[in-house]
Design a protein that fits this description.
Blueprint: H1 10-20, H2 38-47, E1 49-52, E2 61-63, E3 74-79, E4 83-88, E5 91-92, E6 95-96, E7 100-107, E8 110-118
Parallel strand pairs: 1-2
Antiparallel strand pairs: 1-3, 3-4, 4-7, 5-6, 7-8
Length: 122
């Protein structure tokens, strides 16, 4: 029961789950043109709310809580309420084999996928 307080409040949890239910798997999918979102990436990393799977005791990272659908590759989700991004990638033997980012925007009809990119290994 003490851990229940670590999950996001219901409305916040619903927003996170809505983003995670969309297509776009970080580190696997290349969708659209992600270049226009480079500034958004930096802005969300500097000013956005950061969420990650599991129990979090490392502020400012918050728990993603529980969602019915979440890509296994999502290592973090960052959002400012109007935009969001998921970061992560597949792993083999605990080591990342790829890493990528998917970008999402919130419109009147809800969240939508904008683009996904895979980072070039360099």
């Amino acid at each position: 029961m003490a851990l229940a307080g670590c999950a996001p409040p219901a409305a916040e949890q619903a927003e996170l789950c809505a983003i995670l239910a969309l297509p776009g798997v970080p580190g696997i999918d290349r969708i659209g043109d992600a270049r226009p979102y480079a500034d958004l990436d930096r802005r969300l990393q500097a000013e956005g709310r950061i969420y990650a799977p599991g129990l979090r005791i490392d502020p400012p990272v918050r728990s993603l809580g529980r969602c019915d659908r979440r890509a296994r590759t999502v290592e973090m989700l960052l959002t400012n309420g109007a935009f969001a991004m998921t970061k992560g990638g597949p792993r083999q033997d605990g080591r990342p084999t790829a890493f990528g980012t998917c970008y999402f925007g919130k419109a009147n009809a809800g969240w939508r996928l904008l683009a996904c990119r895979i980072n070039d290994p360099s």
